[in-house]
Structure formats: structure tokens, C-alpha cells
């Protein structure tokens, strides 16, 4: 199984809502990533979890809160988002340190109204 | 030919021709590079990688060239096919860390 799954595929939320994005992989990878991608732009790294510990936070606003409940799951909790946060949110995983082939999921298309 | 649109450069090639996609990277200390392909509605897909101690690496129908002197990376696709139509990103990495920085991307359009 070389697949990273993400749910939901699409999400529309108001600025006062709380929602969560989910990501799952069963490849035994120990590093998991969240990226944000705006239209016609490259992915931008948000967070990296390595061995279930947050290792990189790219100065992301606190309205985005990542969580790694176990080595297969990665969540991104959303609260009080702004319309400019509307984007494609991509999850990726890789084997771990010194193995950098990242497998990406299809993303969650988020629209904040 | 190649054109630079408002946000995303586009390269149009005839089916069967070879494609060359270019990338200028920003950090002279970067020592590992990856090319990704992103089709519409999908996440990026790994194509090929190269480390800074190499200047060329070949895969199936793809070749990556690295010129560290001018901080330039290129992806060559042989006998381009309609299924190669996508946006291609280069990504650079420093010290084999986990922080990859993606280039702006190039849209490849294959003409019948």
C-alpha cells in the first residue's frame, strides 16, 4: 500500500467554525508533513512530524493546530480561519530521517467563507 | 515554446518531442533536489532526485541535470506523451533535512 489518504476531499467552513483535516498512511513511514498550496503556486511547508513529534513549524498561525495521534495518522485542526486560508491542504509522508521521497495525498480543498 | 504567464510558466511541446523543464534554485547550500509532477486534482508525485555530488541522473524517460555553478536544475523528458501533461516542480533541500522548498513550477502542455 503506497497510498496517503486525506479526508474530506472538499470542505467549506465559516470563519467561526472548528473543523479538522485527516491524513492516514500505512506504509510504516515515520515522517509526516502538512503543506498548503494556493492556486497556481507551489506547495508551502507548514508542519513536519518526525517519529510522532513536531519537528518543524514554519511559523504557521495558531489557528492551525497539527496533531499526530500515532505513526499512521496526522490531523490538522482548524479554528477561526480567514478567507485567505482557502487553499489545497496536502499531506505527505516519508520513511523518516535521511529518506526523503515524499508520498503525497490528493489534498483537501478548503474554502473559508 | 516556453512562455511566462501571470503566475505559472508554460511549456508547450509536440507529442513525441523531447521536453526540457528548467529550474533556478535559490540556496547555494542546497545539496539535494527532487522533481515532482502534479496532475490536476492530485498531489505531487515524485519523479526523480539528485544529490549535489552528482551532475546527472537518469531514470525511465527522464534525466535530471544539475549545474551547481549557476544554481540550475533541469528535467529532460524523452518522447513526451499526452500523459506527461502536468505541472512540474523542482524542490531543494539543505543538509538532508525535512524542509523542502519548492520552485514556482512549470506547466507542461503536450500537443497532439
Task: Explain what this protein looks like in three dimensions.
The complex is a heterodimer of chains A (113) and B (112). With 113 residues, chain A is mostly beta strands. Chain A is 0% helix and 57% strand. Chain A has no helices and eleven strands. Chain A has strands spanning 4-7, 10-13, 18-25, 31-37, 44-50, 53-57, 64-70, 73-79, 87-94, 103-104, 108-112. In chain A, strands 2, 4, 5, 6, 9, 10 and 11 form a seven-stranded mixed β-sheet that branches. In chain A, strands 1-3-8-7 form a four-stranded antiparallel β-sheet, with no helix packed on it. In chain A, a hairpin with a 2-residue loop joins strand 7 (64-70) and strand 8 (73-79). The radius of gyration of chain A is 13 Å and the shape is globular. Chain A starts with a strand and ends with a strand. Chain B is mostly beta strands. Chain B is built from no helices and eleven strands. Chain B has strands spanning 2-4, 9-14, 19-24, 30-38, 45-51, 56-58, 62-67, 72-77, 86-94, 101-102, 106-111. In chain B, the strands form two sheets. In chain B, strands 1, 2, 4, 5, 9, 10 and 11 form a seven-stranded mixed β-sheet that branches. In chain B, strands 3-8-7-6 form a four-stranded antiparallel β-sheet, with no helix packed on it. In chain B, a hairpin with a 4-residue loop joins strand 1 (2-4) and strand 2. Chain B is globular and about 40 Å long. Residues 1-6 of chain B have low confidence and may be disordered. Chain A binds chain B through residues 4, 31, 33, 40-45, 48, 50, 55-56, 58, 90, 92, 94, 97-98, 100-107, and chain B through 7-8, 32, 34, 41-46, 49, 89, 93, 96, 98-105.
Throw out a few tags for this protein.
heterodimer; A: 113 residues; mainly beta; seven-stranded mixed β-sheet; four-stranded antiparallel β-sheet; 11 strands; globular; B: 112 residues; 0% helix; 56% strand; disordered N terminus
Amino acid at each position: 500500500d503506497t497510498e496517503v489518504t486525506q479526508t474530506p476531499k472538499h470542505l467549506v467552513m465559516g470563519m467561526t467554525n472548528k473543523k479538522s483535516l485527516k491524513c492516514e498512511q500505512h506504509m510504516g513511514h515515520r515522517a509526516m508533513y502538512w503543506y498548503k498550496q494556493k492556486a497556481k503556486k507551489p506547495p508551502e511547508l507548514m508542519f513536519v512530524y518526525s517519529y510522532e513529534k513536531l519537528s518543524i513549524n514554519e511559523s504557521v498561525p495558531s489557528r492551525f493546530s497539527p496533531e499526530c495521534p500515532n505513526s499512521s495518522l496526522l490531523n490538522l485542526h482548524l479554528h477561526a480561519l480567514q478567507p485567505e486560508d482557502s487553499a489545497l491542504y496536502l499531506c505527505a509522508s516519508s520513511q523518516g530521517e535521511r529518506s526523503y521521497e515524499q508520498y503525497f495525498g490528493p489534498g483537501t480543498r478548503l474554502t473559508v467563507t | 515554446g516556453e512562455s511566462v504567464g501571470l503566475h505559472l510558466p508554460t511549456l508547450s511541446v509536440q507529442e513525441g518531442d523531447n521536453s526540457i523543464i528548467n529550474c533556478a534554485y535559490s540556496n547555494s547550500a542546497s545539496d539535494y533536489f527532487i522533481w515532482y509532477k502534479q496532475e490536476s486534482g492530485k498531489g505531487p508525485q515524485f519523479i526523480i532526485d539528485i544529490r549535489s555530488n552528482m551532475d546527472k541522473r537518469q531514470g525511465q524517460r527522464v534525466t535530471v541535470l544539475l549545474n551547481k555553478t549557476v544554481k540550475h536544475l533541469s528535467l529532460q523528458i524523452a518522447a513526451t506523451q499526452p500523459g506527461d501533461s502536468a505541472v512540474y516542480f523542482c524542490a531543494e533541500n539543505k543538509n538532508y533535512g525535512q524542509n523542502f522548498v519548492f520552485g514556482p513550477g512549470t506547466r507542461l502542455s503536450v500537443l497532439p
